[in-house]
Specification:
The protein has four helices and four strands; from the N terminus they run αββααββα. The protein is an alpha+beta fold. It has a four-stranded antiparallel β-sheet with strand order 1-2-3-4. A hairpin with a 4-residue loop joins strand 1 (44-46) and strand 2 (51-58). Helix 1 packs parallel to helix 3 (99-122), helix 2 runs antiparallel to helix 3 and helix 3 runs antiparallel to helix 4 (143-166).
């Protein structure tokens, strides 16, 4: 089922989603600057019994996928991130009135650009949030990763709701 165009809505709808993506990007980069400024690689601070702040460098993708590759992955994931950002902006232009869909896209956009900036500046993504429970550790992540995850969940929910409405 095709999504309705928002041309009757004007361009103002897209601006709010780009502003949300920018806020996510700023929060992501600000937290990473703090981590880079106050932590050395591998430093960790226990916050609660299940949450640490730790400085980790991820040269791969999610869950350090391809992190041990010879360096080509930096540019591969950068190109994918830039391509995704362009595609997301194009989608936002056409669907700004669809709130959940556009919210999800804005989260994906802010997160993707945040991680692309890391790859361009450092050659790796700075991760620092570490969740753990009784010896089990979830891979460290950052604000951009959390936004990307929220965006992916939102897109799945949006699709499930759209299918349900179509019945």
């Amino acid at each position: 089922m095709a999504r309705a165009s928002t041309s009757a809505n004007g361009g103002g709808g897209m601006i709010r989603w780009l502003a949300l993506a920018l806020l996510i990007l700023i929060a992501d980069q600000f937290t990473k600057v703090l981590i880079l400024g106050y932590y050395r690689l591998g430093d960790a601070t226990t916050i609660t019994s299940f949450f640490n702040v730790v400085r980790v460098h991820n040269s791969g993708a999610a869950f350090s996928f391809l992190a041990s590759a010879s360096g080509w992955q930096r540019w591969f994931f950068t190109v994918i991130g830039v391509g995704a950002a362009i595609f997301i902006v194009w989608l936002l232009r056409s669907h700004a009135a669809q709130k959940l869909f556009s919210f999800s896209l804005a989260c994906l956009l802010g997160g993707a650009v945040g991680n692309v900036i890391d790859r361009l500046l450092h050659g790796y993504v700075v991760d620092f949030v570490q969740l753990h429970y009784r010896g089990w550790y979830f891979p460290a992540f950052n604000v951009a990763d959390a936004a990307i995850t929220a965006g992916a969940v939102g897109l799945i929910l949006d699709e499930l709701l759209r299918v349900r409405r179509g019945r």
